[in-house]
Design goal:
Length: 330
């Protein structure tokens, strides 16, 4: 694959990668159909409208029939507005089931619909899945989104008996910005004595506000999440405040005592280097961490090309981790 010759030099590469020529035929075909300014965040309300319009053109996916979706509003932190959660419950959920708290992506500034993913996991793993509608930037700056995620976890564990969940069988996960929030939440749980977590599923996590890695320079194409989008998203999220290890987990100097992690990223993702570095730091801190780097994949390509062999491996790896995590086998 043409990608291999490019990515093996990521440690020294700072020039932008031409994705059209680097990607395989299927990935390039999908990329060619995306608006050239899809992730232009110079006007965030306009970016939201552009993304909503694109998603509205796509057929609604058929969700598993055995899963019920309910919405609940739960208290946030320090008197902030209540947090909207979606609860995905498979039929016949047995008492003492496991649970997954899932945090959506979108660079802290955009909404992302994960109904199909959450419902599929609930059905497949016979567990409860809770999706967090955290407050977005720039309307809400850090640590608002993190507070909402922490509040959702506290609610989930605090209501575990009514929900049919074992409070000792809860894991957290997220994609992109959501994975960064999940990582920050696990740090806060460790430091503030929050509810224990079995594991953290971090899918191409957004972890480092500094944007200094070679891969953060190598993706400059607004059809995908790229350098310009990331810089503006971090500015919107931080709002001029000093970043902390909870808002920018790559800053954490001590990663010991965290739950086992599963980190996945594609070779053509601007988060590649910071994700590999975080996985390495977790391992050095004595935390069990699985790192999966998928050749030829770009940011969220597993979601756009679900039937591509690389995406299928990605999905299988995620499901394997969830199964082992909820079974306490990590």
């Amino acid at each position: 694959m043409r990608s291999a010759g490019l990515i093996c030099h990521h440690s020294t590469m700072t020039a932008a990668i031409d994705l059209d020529s680097a990607l395989d035929e299927q990935h390039a075909a999908v990329l060619s159909m995306l608006p050239p300014d899809l992730f232009d965040l110079s006007d965030i309300p306009m970016a939201r409208a552009r993304l909503d319009a694109l998603l509205a053109m796509m057929p609604a996916p058929a969700l598993p029939a055995d899963v019920t979706i309910t919405e609940v509003m739960v208290p946030s932190v320090d008197g902030a507005p209540d947090v909207r959660l979606k609860v995905f419950t498979p039929s016949g959920l047995e008492s003492g089931a496991g649970a997954l708290l899932w945090v959506h992506g979108g660079g802290m500034v955009l909404m992302d619909n994960d109904d199909l993913k959450c419902a599929t996991w609930a059905s497949m793993h016979e567990c409860l899945v809770v999706w967090v509608d955290y407050r977005l930037a720039p309307e809400t700056h850090a640590p608002g989104a993190l507070n909402d995620c922490f509040a959702a976890l506290v609610w989930l564990v605090g209501n575990s008996e009514d929900l049919g969940v074992d409070p000792g069988r809860v894991m957290i996960g997220g994609a992109s910005a959501g994975a960064g929030l999940a990582a920050g939440t696990t740090l806060r749980v460790r430091d503030d004595g929050g509810p224990p977590l079995l594991g953290q599923l971090l899918v191409y996590p957004m972890l480092d506000h500094r944007n200094e890695t070679p891969s953060s320079h190598s993706i400059q194409d607004q059809r995908v999440w790229d350098r310009s989008a990331n810089v503006l998203a971090w500015e919107a999220y931080l709002g001029g405040a000093e970043p902390t290890q909870y808002s920018s987990p790559a800053l954490a100097e001590d990663l010991s005592g965290l739950p086992p992690a599963h980190i996945s990223v594609g070779t053509f993702d601007m988060f590649h280097d910071e994700d590999v570095a975080y996985a390495t730091s977790l391992t050095r801190a004595g935390v069990s961490c699985e790192l999966h780097v998928y050749p030829g994949a770009f940011h969220a390509s597993n979601k756009m090309l679900p039937d591509h062999p690389t995406s299928l491996r990605w999905t299988n790896d995620e499901n394997d981790f969830i199964s082992r995590c909820l079974a306490g086998q990590l």
